[in-house]
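Chapter review: from sequence to fold.
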Amino acid sequence: MTKGQYSPTSPRGFVSKSSPYGTVEDPFRPAELTFGARGHFFARTIDVDGPITVSVLTAAAKHKGASVVEVLQNCVIFNNGVLNVLSTKEGRAEYAIQLKQGEPMLFGLNNEKGLMQEGFGLKVVNLGENGITEKDVLVHNAHSNDNTLHLKLALMHGPDFPVALGVIRDVEAPSYDESVEAQIAEVQANNPIRTLKELLMGGEIWELK
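The token string follows.
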């Protein structure tokens, strides 16, 4: 936003020119819209991390079909510093997790923390405590057709969980344009009429003399 008003992603209670007493709405979350619309690609990056951004945008470009990338970006005018906790390499190591296909979900300055399944949710664990090893940590699979875990990863927030960065979901599926082209080809193949003349001269014809 360019005039100082709150945006759809502003947190509840955010004070701005258009909400001087704080917003009364919960923030819009792009991940929820993407997953609710049965999206097959969702990723997240932060503007100050070039390598993650390059890898995410490259994967999005290669994906067949619609790709949604959420970019966490600081606004130096109206909301400066909102991403300070993630603006440094050390901060991202501690408070974010970079998801990589086929690799354990580890984070922390020394990869000493990880994510495990707990019931229907997730929990953060410390490696070495209670006999927990890297083998107990969840392994990221962005290509899984089951989007349950993908959505949980995308919605992680707050002091108890890291922010998920990287490609969260990347599933192959028929794209709209390819499906339409295949449908047209199938209809054409099964239709005996091949030309406009055949269409106009087909059926019943009357000759006037």
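Two observations follow directly from the output. The beta strands are 41-46, 68-72, 96-99, 106-107, 113-118, 121-126, 163-170. The longest strand covers residues 163-170.
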